[in-house]
Amino acid sequence: MNVIMLGLPGAGKGTQAKIIVEHLRIPHISTGDLFRKAAQDHTPLGLTAKVYMDKGELVPDEITIGLATDRLAEQDCAAGFLLDGFPRSLNQAQALRSELAASGRTIDHVVYVQVDERLLFERLTGRRVCCDCGAAYHIAYRPTAAEGRCDVCGGDVVQRDDDRPETVAERLRINGELTEQLAKYYAEADVLRVVDGSGDIADVTEHVLNLFTAS
User: Fold this and answer.
1) Is 193 helix (H, G, I), strand (E, B) or coil?
2) Residues in contact with 121: Cβ distance below 8 Å, sequence separation at least 6, in sequence order
3) Which amino acid positions bind ATP, per UniProt (predicted)?
4) Identified catalytic residue from 71, 128, 171, 193
5) CB half-sphere exposure, 107, CA atoms < 13 A
6) Is 127 a catalytic residue?
């Protein structure tokens, strides 16, 4: 089974992806992980991607497509895969379709984890992280016992630049436009499956798995 996870930042698609691949027994392909590994391996594509990532900018399509299609050509993807974070634009979606068609493959399901943008804004701007050990918190859902101090190591707990209100608002705006274009593209291909991502993680997972069996 070939699956794409679609959703805005904070919707929980990455969390769902990690759970779903355990059920389906297919590789989880995250473009973020691909970028980081390629950069660590000092590949030309990886080093170029790192320049954009370090500036908080989207990695250009040709780099993203190259890394993703190289990964999909590996043997463990022959029986299926789950893509998380790719495609992120119509150009990438069309390139993916062509690449898969060349090897006689198609996308079976595109799971759109849909969450109201007001809730996403709250989720993202409320996130906090420990400077020392990296432990994650949330001011509403998982606050620290002592304000500004990590429960694990006692380090400073701060808000990342990516989670500041003005940055989050812009990320949601840009990603919202791209995601809606992709949703329309895959709806026209009759592979889009929409699930409400505002509930508990277990409930969302159950809904996603039911979509697979019902389709």
Assistant:
1) strand
2) 165, 168, 169, 172
3) 10-15, 127, 199
4) 171
5) 27
6) yes
